[in-house]
């Protein structure tokens, strides 16, 4: 076996060992009524994955994000954040087309062109100053547009809260992210890592709020996720709930040119 292949195998073994130890250390206490919520039948498993994610964030992701904020000047962080957001305009525009929202697709395409040129590859958000606001769209919302329900709540390893519909939507959205096509692969991994660290840095204040306000962080995260995604599905004007499932039917959102500005975590 070549030396490089041997080193890679050793690194994979160490990573797998570390992940296994972290998972074993992250066993969470599960309430006796876990799984009774119709929106969260997998709560027992979800809580274990949630505990793993909490440990991963505490000992790895959060320290990296805090170091990133401490070392990188605010202006450069803003440029990096805007640049990655600009790349997501491709995803936004395609999903607007799939949702039959021509005005939204034109808005997103205009943002991509303006910010990629006048905004220096997205470093500056010139489009917002011109009245073209950010529209966070993804394939999960496209499925919702055409009547697909959320399905049960899920906690994905490392990626965090989701549901069955949105988890499925991550697959096509990955192919709509220009970073997925960057070569060489090493550069692609570096860009992906910087994007993840930057996204976590944007959420530092939000996690402080959860630490202070939530008695049950898991339940708070689950309820907040459903509320936020429901609000995005109906572009800030969700109809009243009709049942306990967390859904009100397949009514699609109307096309608007200026929806509510999404939170940083919407950048997925």
Could you explain the architecture of this structure?
With 268 residues, the protein is mainly alpha-helical. It has one domain. It is built from eleven helices and two strands. The chain has a two-stranded antiparallel sheet with strand order 1-2. The radius of gyration is 20 Å and the shape is globular.
Output mean pLDDT. 84
How far the N terminus sits from the C terminus, by CA atoms, comes to 39 Å
* Count of strand segments: 2
The count of helical stretches stands at 11
Brief digest:
With about 270 residues, this protein is mainly alpha-helical. It is about 60% helix and about 5% strand.
Key traits:
single chain; 268 residues; mainly alpha; two-stranded antiparallel sheet; 2 strands; globular
Per-chain topology:
Blueprint: H1 3-25, H2 43-71, H3 74-87, H4 89-98, H5 102-117, H6 126-129, H7 139-145, E1 153-156, E2 160-163, H8 164-175, H9 185-202, H10 204-213, H11 217-233
Antiparallel strand pairs: 1-2
């Amino acid at each position: 076996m070549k030396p490089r292949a041997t080193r890679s195998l050793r690194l994979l073994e160490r990573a797998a060992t570390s992940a296994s130890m972290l998972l074993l250390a992250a066993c969470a206490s599960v309430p006796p009524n876990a799984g009774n919520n119709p929106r969260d039948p997998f709560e027992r498993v979800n809580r274990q994955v949630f505990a793993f994610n909490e440990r991963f964030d505490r000992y790895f992701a959060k320290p990296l994000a805090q170091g990133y904020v401490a070392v990188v000047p605010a202006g450069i962080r803003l440029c990096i954040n805007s640049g990655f957001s600009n790349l997501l305009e491709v995803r936004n525009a395609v999903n607007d087309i799939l949702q039959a929202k021509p005005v939204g697709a034109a808005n997103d395409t205009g943002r991509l062109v303006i910010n990629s040129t006048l905004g220096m590859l997205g470093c500056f958000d010139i489009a917002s100053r011109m009245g073209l606001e950010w529209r966070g769209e993804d394939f999960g919302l496209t499925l919702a547009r055409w009547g697909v329900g959320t399905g049960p709540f899920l906690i994905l390893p490392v990626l965090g809260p989701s549901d069955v519909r949105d988890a499925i939507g991550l697959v096509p959205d990955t192919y709509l992210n220009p970073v997925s096509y960057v070569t060489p692969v090493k550069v692609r991994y570096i860009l992906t890592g910087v994007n993840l660290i930057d996204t976590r840095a944007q959420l530092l204040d939000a996690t402080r709020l959860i630490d202070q306000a939530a008695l049950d962080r898991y339940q708070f995260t689950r309820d907040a996720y459903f509320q936020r995604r429901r609000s995005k599905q109906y572009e800030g004007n969700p109809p009243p709930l009709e049942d306990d499932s967390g859904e009100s039917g397949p009514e699609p959102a109307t096309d608007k040119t200026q929806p509510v500005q999404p939170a940083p975590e919407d950048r997925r």
